[in-house]
Amino acid sequence: MRALRIGILEGDDIGLEVVPQTVEVMLAAAAKANLAIDWHPVPIGKKAFDELGNTLPPGTLDKLDTLDGWVLGPIGHQAYPRNNPNSINPHPILRRHYDLFANIRPSKSYPGVPCIYPDVDLVIVRENNEGFPPDRNVHLGYGEFRPTPDMTIGIRVITRQGSQKVARAAFDLARTRRRKIVTAVHKDTVFKMACGMFAEECRKVAAEYPDVTFNEVLVDTMAAKLIMKPQQFDVIVTTNTFGDILSDAASALVGGLGLAPGLSAGPERAMAQATHGSAPDIAGKGIANPYAMIMSGQMLLAWLGHKHKVPAALSAADLMERATEAVVKARKVLTRDMGGSASTQQMGAAIAAAI
Ligand code: ATP
Question: What is the spatial distance between Cα 9 and Cα 350, in angstroms, rounded to a whole number?
């Protein structure tokens, strides 16, 4: 088997702190599991703008085309220079260019770590390229417009194919989990055509997975259920914006955004990307929690291991998961948001050492 080709895109703000720790941990796991990885630093974000004049330099996509996957740090596009065609938010472009249609966001809590519930273990699978986001739901132009100064129209896109693909990703994931339950979240009672189509496709896919339990919950009911009894959920599949909101809420149940990893996966490639943003309020202080980014890297190795049938990548992912959980459960080297006093670097080093 050839070496896996993995890109390192640090992103902005705390990305410059949590991504290097993630790479350290992935390196340790790869060494232990005898996994060959070719690493490729790729420019993106504010640093790329300052050095190369573009937040998504022309060579970046060419480079990514040659890779199996990459680790993307959070993007702080709100702070990019305004009205400059060279300072765009690269997110939607990456997601669409590589058809990264499934955004997989786990929320898992640990007893002893500050959280609302110590026994949550769920994953939200969110459709990533359709729905409401106006910067990615149309081919050309922008999915919001203002016909008069006092009226704005926003559009939402739902396709059968997109719904089916994300539903299948959720059922495939559920099959690998202990409880094997998929809950489709929508509001087909009101959005009869859009949510209706999404729900129909989920039901069709459910019929192909008789070993997985399937149920449906309306999104507003879900908001309440998630807060009252999140333990009942295993895999939740939903449309773009519902998933974005519910996954931030789910992260709060288990201790906050520092504990919320994520993977955006497509037919050929996957991108490790934590749920949190670039957190400019804590950037440069060495206090960001690297857990979310490290576990996103773990998800990437697991995905690549399955996709390319590389047992060493699966072993490396398993090592990363066990080492991270061991450090979290020992509660000796944790960042502040997890109730400790360690720095980002110390926590990353402790996880690498545990491997
Ligand atoms: P975006 O819209 O880009 O997703 P956001 O508005 O959700 O960003 P974040 O940048 O994720 O905002 O930050 C939200 C809060 O969570 C901030 O107070 C931030 O400090 C905190 N936070 C985010 N990530 C981490 C982390 N890895 N460790 C500790 N705190 C974090």
Answer: 23
At residue 145, φ and ψ (nearest 5 deg) are -150, 165
Q: What is the C-alpha separation between 153 and 43, in angstroms, rounded? A: 36
Ligand 1 pocket (Cβ < 6 Å) reads: 14, 257-258, 276-279, 281-282, 288-289, 292, 337
Report phi then psi at 264, rounded to 5. Answer: -105, 120
Place of tokens 């209706």: 196
pLDDT of residue 137: 87
Domain that holds residue 240: 116-254
Reported as type and span, the H/E element at residue 69 is strand 69-72
Assigned domain for 107 exists: no
pLDDT score of 67 more than 90: yes
Q: What is the pLDDT of residues 307-330, one digit of tens each?
A: 999 999 999 999 999 999 999 999
Q: How many CA atoms lie within 13 A of 196 on its CB side?
A: 5
Residue 172 CB-density burial (10 A; 0-12 exposed, 13-18 middle, 19+ buried) = middle
Helix (H) or strand (E) holding 284: none
Helix (H) or strand (E) holding 148: strand 144-148
Residue 136: the pLDDT is 82
Give residue 19 CA to ligand 1 midpoint distance, Å. 15
- How many separate domains does the chain show? 2
CA 344 / ligand 1 centre spacing (Å): 15
Q: What average pLDDT does range 97-116 have in this prediction?
A: 94
Residue 261 lies in a domain: no
Would you say 25 and 294 are in contact if contact means Cβ atoms under 8 Å apart?
yes
By C-alpha distance, which of 20, 78, 19, 89 is closest to 54? Answer: 89
Q: Which atom of ligand 1 is nearest to the CA of 280?
A: 10
125 shares its domain with 228: yes
Q: How confident is the model at residue 1, as a pLDDT?
A: 72
